Amino acid sequence: MAFENLQEKLGKVFSRLRGRGKLSEGDIRSAMREVKLALLEADVNVKVVNDFVRTVSEKSLGAEVHESLNPAQQVIKIVNEELTAMMGGQNARVNMASKGPTVIMMVGLQGAGKTTNGAKLAAYFKETLKKRPLLVACDVYRPAAIKQLQVVGEQVGVPVFEMGQGNPVEIAKKGLAHAALNGNDLVLIDTAGRLHIDEALMDELKSIKSEVNPNEIMLVVDAMTGQDAANVASAFNDALSIDGVLLAKHDSDARGGAALSVRAVTGKPIKFVGTGEKIEANCIEPFHPDRVASRILGMGDMLSFIEKAQRNFDDKKAAELEQKLRKNKFDLDDYLEQMQQLKGMGSLESLAGMVPGVSAKQLAGAKIDEKIITRTEAVIRSMTKKERQNPGILNFSRKKRIAAGSGCRIEDINRVLKQFEMTQMMAKKMTGGGKQKLNFGGPKAKNSKGFKYPF
Residue 246 belongs to what H/E stretch? Predict the structure, then answer.
């Protein structure tokens, strides 16, 4: 999980502060030394760390303690505010065209993930803003780059414009003309990268920028490279004046140095983070500095959790499920449907940082096992409609028939039924026997009380 190591170290620092009650100047300076070491170990840029620690120290020593906070809480509040400010303060949106298609030029070094994350971004805008995106293949040098773009484009249902190994500048121009003719209101240009920054790369990117006049130059950097990502961002910004950064492999970086350094070094915001290996819309997320700071300090991020659930759970089906739960009519078909929707939310480990008080280490390696879901689906699909609606009638003879039809063992069938019974019991507790009104986290949900049934 992103920031896992930093979260653990800062948690220990603030735990000691809470145990001291009234804080002396020495306590604060000692704590800030530990915070500094934690940030440096997280591979945050040295200048950024020094500026951060100096600011927090000055504000902590000079702050008047809010009447509702103890001194330790006041320090944590200041750290939270400064972490948020370091990463940009608030979510920065993509610059959208007021007329004609919005053009996003994807740039970055080879291997950073431009092609895959460009497809994820196209899928995100297609799903969330109902855009009609077009991917344009301008990487004419890397072997199979065009084919890769076509494959990922097909996976997300987004068309790809290509002209083979031609002139990238001409391809970009004709790609825009194609978009205008075919009603595509969002164009993502997949440009070439290099293993390192060189003059030839930058000259080509400058030529494309000059000809297509993009609304947004989106730099893709690999979060796993730590503070070096900030150095790459700085070089691209000097040459192209980028508009924003997409941080790839964000969930695989346990340190978090890139996320904490890029904005402070370049002055340009991180706008999106790529998560997961699949090419899907839910594998890319807007970057919210305040929510990330909250995760780092172990306070969770329920807003992102709810938004992630809303993207994966159908509101109409959620309302139908609510009625079934309240009437105790939740059956095996409903159970299977909820398991399949939960699979789209990713691993339990990736969700851990969103839940206050839950450590990623507690769920290390825990995943929604697709094999278990496949086996569960095979078992349930081998039942008759009557058996799915009333599993209590499943005797040994029926189970034996289901085992033969699903290719599973009777033990697997019993395991599915046991898990279903536990889910039913949990549902009854949460609904208060059908008397409690549920909020399934629909579009109007604004806080952590919104909830979609997660199983």
Answer: strand 244-248
For residues 136 and 122, give the distance between their C-alpha atoms in angstroms, rounded to a whole number.
11
**pLDDT tens for the chain, residues 1 to 455:** 456 777 778 888 877 777 666 677 888 888 889 888 888 888 888 888 999 999 988 888 766 545 445 677 778 888 888 888 988 888 889 999 988 899 999 999 988 889 999 999 999 999 989 999 999 999 998 888 999 999 999 999 999 999 998 899 999 999 999 999 999 999 999 999 888 888 888 999 999 999 999 999 999 998 888 778 888 898 899 999 999 999 888 766 656 778 888 888 888 899 998 876 677 656 888 988 888 888 787 665 445 554 555 555 556 666 666 666 666 677 888 888 777 666 655 554 555 555 444 455 554 554 555 677 788 889 999 999 999 989 989 999 999 999 999 998 999 899 889 888 887 777 666 555 544 444 433 433 333 333 333 32
- With 0-12 / 13-18 / 19 or more C-beta atoms within 10 angstroms meaning exposed / middle / buried, residue 331 is middle
Q: How far apart are the C-alpha atoms of 316 and 452, rounded to whole Å?
A: 12
**pTM reported for the whole predicted model:** 0.66
* Ranges assigned E (strand) in 119-193: 133-137, 160-161, 186-190
Cβ 65 vs Cβ 267: under 8 Å: no
Helix (H) or strand (E) holding 103: strand 102-107
Residue 451 vs residues 344, 441, 443, 446: alpha-carbon distances, Å: 16, 4, 11, 11
CA distance 184 to 177: 10
CB-CB contact of 284 with 125 (8 Å): no
Output the DSSP codes for 248-282.
ETGGG-SS-HHHHHHHHHHS--EEEEE-SSS-SGG
Amino acid (1-letter code) at residue 424: Q
Residue among 83, 14, 20 at smallest CA distance from 53: 83
Rounded to whole angstroms, the Cα distance separating 107 from 118 reads 10
Which pair of structure tokens corresponds to residue 15? 């735990």
Which helix (H) or strand (E) element contains residue 221? strand 216-222
For residue 169, give both structure tokens.
């500048």
